[in-house]
Specification:
This protein is 39% helix and 21% strand. The protein is an alpha/beta fold and 263 residues long. The protein has a domain of 176 residues: Ribosomal Protein S5, domain 2. Strand 11, helix 7 and strand 12 form a beta-alpha-beta unit. The longest helix has 27 residues. The protein starts with 6 loop residues before the first helix and ends in an 8-residue tail after the last helix. The relative contact order is 0.16.
């Protein structure tokens, strides 16, 4: 024989499964990564005690200012991200929630992902060297460029590598520095022909850049709107599509004359 439940008792019984489901949703792992502003490194100087750019076979310049590549830090591919983490990330300006597959190749082990990122970095460095030497017309010369950047993977430092090579070899072309003594930061892939490509996490990279003293940020033109979304005060955006365009914009900024594109 079943006894009749009072209304409060019935509501309590009905609510228990809902509470259980909500609790499970909050703590269940989700296919997302939470990212935040990462480290930056001056490609014209040293990173962890080692010169980032070493050039042999041609005279190099003593440079001033900085060209800082930027990164994001994301939860690992095997990390557990809960609904609470996702909600916190959505409402925080210094974090971003991204599909894990957009950050890490799907289905790969941590070791495979690290290897993939290292290979992308190597390809990016090779393309950056070819783009810089091609821009300077030095492709047929016996110039060797070595690029070292510890604990960073992926292709998004390509543009800054190329600019660093150009600055060390030629500067602004008339004796000055590309930076004009400023701290310039940026992001963007580079192809051997000097085309700049889009990357991810731009709004977080601008925050990392400003935190580390940058006043100018070079951004792939296609990502202007993302860069403006959480743009820190005091950071000027310069959109670029090619290495040649980036050099021209920095030279115009340094000399205080000429057209400087803006987002």
């Amino acid at each position: 024989m079943l006894s009749r439940l009072t209304r409060p008792q019935a509501l309590t019984v009905c609510a228990l499964p809902v509470v259980g489901l909500l609790a499970a949703a909050v703590f269940a792992p989700l296919p997302f990564s939470v990212a935040q502003p990462g480290m930056t490194a001056n490609v014209l100087g040293q990173n962890k005690g080692t010169e980032v750019i070493t050039i042999t076979g041609a005279p190099t310049r003593t440079t001033s200012g900085q060209l800082r590549m930027t990164t994001i830090e994301a939860t690992g591919p095997d990390a557990s991200v809960s609904l609470g983490d996702v909600i916190d990330g959505w409402f925080a300006t210094d974090r971003a929630v991204m599909p894990r597959d957009a950050v890490y190749p799907s289905g790969n082990s941590v070791t495979e992902i690290e290897q993939h990122n290292a290979e992308q970095m190597k390809q990016s460095q090779d393309a950056a060297t070819r783009a810089a030497l091609g821009y300077l017309g030095d492709s047929d010369k016996h110039i060797k460029v070595t690029l070292r950047l510890a604990d960073v993977g992926g292709p998004s430092a390509g543009l800054l590598f190329s600019l660093g090579i150009v600055d060390k070899l030629d500067g602004d072309g008339s004796g000055g520095d590309l930076t004009g003594g400023r701290t310039i930061a940026g992001t963007g892939t580079i192809s051997a022909d000097g085309t700049v490509g889009a990357v991810g996490g731009v709004s977080l990279k601008t925050q990392a850049a400003r935190r580390d003293g940058a006043t100018v940020f070079l951004v792939p033109k296609a990502e202007c709107s993302d860069a403006r979304a959480e743009l820190p005060k005091g950071l000027r955006l310069i959109p670029v599509t090619t290495l040649k365009g980036a050099v021209s914009a920095l030279t115009a900024l340094e000399k205080g004359k000429g057209a400087i594109p803006s987002c």
